[in-house]
Amino acid sequence: MTDISIDDTDRRIINGLQGGFGLGDRPYRDAGERLGLSEEALIGRLERLVECRALSRFGPMYNAERIGGAVTLCAVAVPEDRFDDVAGLINSHREVAHNYARNHTLNMWFVIACETPEDIDATIAAIEDETGLDVHNFPKQREFFIGLKVEA
After folding, report:
1. Model's pTM, two decimal places?
2. For domain 64-138, which CATH number applies: 3.40.630.30, 3.30.70.3460, 3.40.50.1820, 3.40.50.40?
């Protein structure tokens, strides 16, 4: 779908679900009630918002390091004629959380989240092997929490 138009209910959903989602037995029902929607209506709207790409995803954001895992930011200089193919190879790794194109020599940036630091090294090595490109690893030096919320 290419239609990314959203209505007031969609905006209420997007704005109302940022920063917290219940963990009860029926979290969609509970969230729907807060938003004045049925459980089925909320789920349907979220599916449509992801399908039309108004939302890139709907799901939890985990702090991998707090639960014993490891995270790093990586970048690659990808020839323009290989960009889509390389993105597909990188994104095929379950450890890759998201991927961004940038207007820079290092034109593809992505986040790797793994169970251990060694798993990060193995994922980077696999990506380098599959793509034939050098992966630049930029591990976090310090964390800043800015509480980002995007108003729809």
Report:
1. 0.64
2. 3.30.70.3460
Reduced to 3 states (helix: H, G, I; strand: E, B; else coil), residue 58 is: coil
CA dist., res. 45 & res. 30, Å (int): 15
Q: Tell me how far apart the alpha carbons of residues 109 and 136 are, in angstroms, rounded to a whole number.
A: 9
What gap in Å lies between CA 134 and CA 105, rounded to an integer?
12
User: What length is written for the chain?
Assistant: 152
> What is the arithmetic mean of pLDDT over 8-26?
89
Cα 10 to Cα 29: distance, rounded to the nearest angstrom = 16
Angle at 146 between CA 143 and CA 147, to 5 degrees: 125
Closest by Cα among 104, 101, 108 to 127: 108
Alpha-carbon span 82 to 86, nearest angstrom: 6
Residue type, 121: D
Q: Is the pLDDT of residue 98 over 60?
A: yes
- Residues of CATH 3.30.70.3460 domain(s) within the chain? 64-138
pLDDT digits (tens, 9 = 90+) for 19-74: 778 888 999 999 999 999 999 999 999 999 988 888 877 877 777 777 778 899 99
